[in-house]
C-alpha cells in the first residue's frame, strides 16, 4: 500500500492548491485503489477533503476562474474499458471546502489523460484514450540478434497484463478482467484460448 500525489491545480487567485492523492492497495489490480480530491491553503493549515471515491481518476485537475474544480470520474467500475466523464464541483474560495455535490459536465468513451480550460472559462479541452493493455509475443532472431515482429496473443477486447512464463517456455501466465473480475490465466503460445489458473474475488 502506498500514497502518491498524481495531479495538482492552482486556484485562480493562487492562494490555494487542489490535488489528488492516489492510495494504492493492490499491486496488480486497481480494484482496491482509491483517490482523494483535496485542497490546501498555501499559508498552511489542514487540507480540505473534497471527494473520496474509487471512481476518481488519478489524472489531471483544472480549477476554473468561476470557482469550480473539474476532474475525471469513472462512469461504471464494472466496465473493463473504463469510460470516464468530466465532473465539476464548486469550491468556496476562502475555506477551500466544497459547495454542493459534483455535477456532470461531459461524458465519452475511454479514459481521460488531461484537462484544460480557456482563460475565459468558457471552453474545455481534454484528451482521451481507449486502448487496453494486451499480451504480445516476439522471438529473438539468432541470425540478426533482433526481435521479430510482435504478434498478439490475447485476442479479446479486455485488459490483459502479462505476468510470467511457465517453466516449459510454451505457456504464459497473464492477468485479465475479462469476466468482470481480475483472474490469472494460462495460455499456450500456439493456442488462441486461455484457461483460468487462479480465480479472483468479486
Structure description:
The protein is mainly beta and about 200 residues long. The protein folds into two domains: about 1-130, Glycosyl hydrolase domain, family 43 (Tachylectin-2, Chain A), CATH 2.115.10.20; about 135-200, no CATH class. The protein is built from no helices and 18 strands. The protein has strands spanning about 1-10, 15-25, 35-40, 50-55, 60-65, 70-75, 85-90, 100-105, 110-115, 125-130, 135, 140, 145, 150, 160-165, 170-175, 185-190, 195-200. A hairpin with a 6-residue loop joins β7 and β8. The protein is elongated and about 65 Å long. The chain starts with a strand and ends with a strand. The mean pLDDT is about 85.
Layout: helices, strands, pairs:
Layout (H helix, E strand, L loop, with lengths): L1 E9 L5 E9 L9 E8 L6 E6 L8 E2 L4 E7 L9 E8 L6 E9 L4 E7 L6 E6 L6 E2 L2 E2 L4 E2 L3 E2 L7 E6 L5 E6 L6 E6 L6 E4 L4
Antiparallel strand pairs: 1-2, 2-3, 3-4, 5-6, 6-7, 7-8, 9-10, 11-14, 12-13, 15-16, 16-17, 17-18
| Major sheet size, sense and barrel closure | 4 strands, antiparallel
Strand content: over 45%
Rg, please? 21 Å
Total individual domains: 2
* Mean model confidence by pLDDT: 86
Helix content: under 10%
Shape: elongated
Name the CATH architecture of the largest domain.
Answer: 5 Propeller
Q: State the end-to-end distance.
A: 20 Å
CATH class of the largest domain: Mainly Beta
Q: Can you tell me the CATH superfamily of the largest domain?
A: Glycosyl hydrolase domain, family 43
How many E strands?
18
Q: Note the run of SSEs as H and E.
A: EEEEEEEEEEEEEEEEEE
Number of helices: 0
Helix/strand/pairing class, anyone?
mainly beta
- Note poorly predicted spans: none
CATH topology of the largest domain: Tachylectin-2, Chain A
Arrangement of strands in the largest sheet: 1-2-3-4
Amino acid at each position: 500500500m502506498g500514497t502518491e500525489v498524481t495531479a495538482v491545480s492552482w486556484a485562480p487567485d493562487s492562494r490555494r492548491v487542489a490535488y489528488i492523492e492516489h492510495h494504492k492497495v493492490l499491486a496488480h489490480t486497481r480494484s482496491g485503489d482509491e483517490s482523494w480530491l483535496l485542497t490546501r491553503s498555501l499559508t498552511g493549515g489542514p487540507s480540505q477533503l473534497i471527494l473520496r471515491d474509487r471512481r476518481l481518476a488519478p489524472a489531471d485537475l483544472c480549477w476554473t476562474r468561476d470557482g469550480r474544480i473539474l476532474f475525471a470520474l469513472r462512469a461504471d467500475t464494472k466496465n473493463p474499458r473504463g469510460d470516464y466523464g468530466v465532473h465539476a464541483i464548486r469550491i468556496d474560495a476562502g475555506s477551500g471546502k466544497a459547495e454542493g455535490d459534483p455535477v456532470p459536465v461531459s461524458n465519452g468513451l475511454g479514459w481521460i489523460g488531461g484537462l484544460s480550460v480557456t482563460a475565459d472559462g468558457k471552453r474545455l479541452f481534454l484528451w482521451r484514450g481507449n486502448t487496453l493493455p494486451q499480451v504480445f509475443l516476439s522471438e529473438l532472431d539468432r541470425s540478426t540478434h533482433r526481435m521479430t515482429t510482435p504478434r498478439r496473443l490475447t485476442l479479446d477486447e479486455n485488459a490483459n497484463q502479462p505476468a510470467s512464463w511457465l517453466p516449459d517456455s510454451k505457456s504464459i501466465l497473464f492477468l485479465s478482467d475479462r469476466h468482470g473480475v481480475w483472474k490469472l490465466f494460462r495460455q499456450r503460445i500456439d493456442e488462441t484460448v486461455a484457461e483460468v489458473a487462479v480465480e479472483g474475488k468479486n
